[in-house]
Amino acid sequence: MTISPEAPSRAMDLLRFATAGSVDDGKSTLIGRLLYDSKAIFEDQLEAVEATSRSRGDEYTNLALLTDGLRAEREQGITIDVAYRYFATPRRKFIIADTPGHIQYTRNMVTGASTADLALILVDARKGLLEQSRRHAFLCSLLRVPHLVLCVNKMDLVDYSQEIFESIADEFTAFAAKLDVPDLTVVPISALKGDNIVTRSENMPWYEGPSLLHHLEHVHIASDRNLVDVRFPVQYVIRPQSTVVADYRGYAGQVASGVLKPGDEVMAMPSGFTSTISSIETADGPIAEAFPPMSVTIRLADEIDIARGDMICRPNNRPAVSQDIEAMVCWMDESRPMSVGGKYAIKHTTRSARAIVRGIQYRLDVNTLHRDECADGLGLNEIGRVKLRTTVPLLADEYRRNRTTGGFIIIDETTNRTVGAGMIIEAA
Amino acid sequence: MKGVNAMTAAYRVSHLDALEAESIFVMREVVAEFERPVLLFSGGKDSIVMLRLAEKAFAPARIPFPVMHVDTGHNFSEVLAFRDARVEELGVQLIVASVPEAITSGLVRESADGMRNRIQTPVLLDAVEKYRFDALFGGARRDEEKARAKERVFSFRDEFGQWDPRNQRPELWSLYNARVHPGESIRVFPLSNWTELDIWHYIARERIGLPEIYFAHDREVVDRDGMLYAINEFLPLRAGEEPFVAKVRYRTVGDASCTAAVKSDADTIEKVIDEVAATRITERGATRGDDKVSEAAMEDRKREGYF
């Protein structure tokens, strides 16, 4: 069984997916298999892992060693950080954000899920859904990962039982329905034996869906992008100090959402000045349209005052301009909890501000989804609904509508560490 | 972005376009948020691609930061010539941080085996301090090595230039935390999500020039520990070694005393792409004597401040 090696194709697209699970779920075996079968693991890497396994007295080659990159992880036999892996088929390039599954690594999973188009959750067919499976599903829905895949693994150990698979699939589907998961696929697999990984398994003729890889290659992600709301956060103003291109002024940035064209009437926020796009440029020349995730330079017909942190949008479709933000926050700092009255730096799109915590409406138990409305702080890995007041207005959208203009990070002003991730619910 | 017009109907973006857009975003973010960025330029293919992305990110303006070469003194002449020509063409300032000069001044001491990979680190850190650089672009990719698989795009370094892998800043969405105290810095890796093959596809698509040694050519080599090393002034013959001429190319370009060549007939970009797609050994494993020391060789060097 092999996936054809990464062909010299230049027409592939890109899918980012996050995996969640613990070592026991067979996550490392699954990733090892995807990487090995797509030739993304090389012989010298495999030899190094085999030698280490032998010297530690492991009975089999421990594929987890391939993915555990840091010395501390190899010594402790645990994954403690997000690792990024790469493989490709002729159709797609894949970036895996491989995250540890235990509750003490919730922040790592939130980090991995933040950029994912798809999340893959593993459960052991013998154990069924665990508390952590529900937590993973909840975090994926919180981070608005558009596609969710539940892999019911180790089907070989339950005699490829359709009954067991369907009971797990039904239970998970019922749970996911409460979470607002846009797209759910459930696949019965054996990562160890290769069932339903690359090709459909002959051991489960009752399963009529795609193999896991087929699904990863074909899941439709183009329409996940928001092509409706024009949002262009200005990153940098290009003004060459040169006589060749005198008076050039271009607004450089990456399209967060929407489609921009020359001739479009646009409004700069927060100033509210309007102008018309005179051209959209790249180093390869002007282009007819810009859409996510393109990095371009926009030029306007009128000289209006626009700086980094401003946003170009359409006059009739604008983000909220507000200093009062309500957001779900995942706290990531072990040394100090987030507390009411705390002051932090925040970064939202290309805009930086300071913020004060006005209130914590509730803290969410990520396992039971119970809301504790008496909470006065958020500790490491805790998630809650928070009210913030910022020093300057944010140009904000609801995170559920726009992951780029709805997300922000919270930075400790003393240590400069990133201590929290926020997802805007309401800006008013 | 080439070919965008043809694909506009479906708003489709190829993986190379997506990678390019992400790298350009990262570079603009650095220039907007830091005082004194610098791009580490070795004349190797990854730093050549990175420099090309910098050119694109700020066009039609010039690249708004200098480039720096940490020069071990063990160079391939083709690579130095390429470096100088490219810098001239772009009109950027070149800073050379010289290991031989640092040996003369006593900042570092030549190691017993003559390999200068490890002693590059203090030379780099010395230059960072001297020029007060607060952001350093490096061409490292996460697919190169497993310690790098966990490195951030914006990777924090303390005032000693050290990397603490257990204490990295979480990195969410495309929101990069650029805050540092004076004396601290960020290593920035715009090519984090590129693979070796992505780099080659991009070189082909953009028609980017490379030093000749990346393509198959005849060279006098010796077989040392199963790797083919070119004989030159930095890598003298050892007793009993028989040099021979072989058709080789370099997959990576580093210090001429520790970078090996691979047997190859690939004398065009297309042939190199076919070869890279079919190879079963990592590029560092095939060509770098310096990574073979232990499983954690790279992690240890990175902790000390290596790029």
TrEMBL record, chain A:
CDD domains named in the record: CysN_ATPS, CysN_NodQ_II, CysN_NoDQ_III
UniProt domain Tr-type G: residue ranges: 12-225
EC number(s) per entry: 2.7.7.4
Binding site for GTP: 21-28, 98-102, 153-156
Enzyme class: transferase
Catalytic activity: sulfate + ATP + H(+) = adenosine 5'-phosphosulfate + diphosphate
Segment forming the signal sequence: none
Gene3D superfamilies named in the record: P-loop containing nucleotide triphosphate hydrolases, Translation factors
Any GO BP: hydrogen sulfide biosynthetic process
Oligomeric form and interacting partners: Heterodimer composed of CysD, the smaller subunit, and CysN.
Protein name per its UniProtKB record: Sulfate adenylyltransferase subunit 1
Automatic annotation (TrEMBL), chain B:
Top-tier EC class: transferase
Residue span of region Disordered: 288-307
UniProt GO MF annotations: ATP binding; sulfate adenylyltransferase (ATP) activity
Enzyme Commission number, as recorded: 2.7.7.4
Keywords associated with the record: ATP-binding, Nucleotide-binding, Nucleotidyltransferase, Transferase
One of the GO biological process terms: sulfate assimilation
One Pfam short name: PAPS_reduct
Database matches in InterPro entries: PAPS_reduct_dom, Rossmann-like_a/b/a_fold, SO4_adenylTrfase_ssu, Sulfate_adenylyltrnsfr_sub2
SUPFAM superfamilies assigned: Adenine nucleotide alpha hydrolases-like (SSF52402)
Domain of life: Bacteria
Domain Phosphoadenosine phosphosulphate reductase, chain residue ranges per copy: 37-260
NCBIfam families for the chain: CysD, PRK05253.1, PRK12563.1
Family: Belongs to the PAPS reductase family. CysD subfamily.
Protein name: Sulfate adenylyltransferase subunit 2
Protein's organism: Planosporangium mesophilum
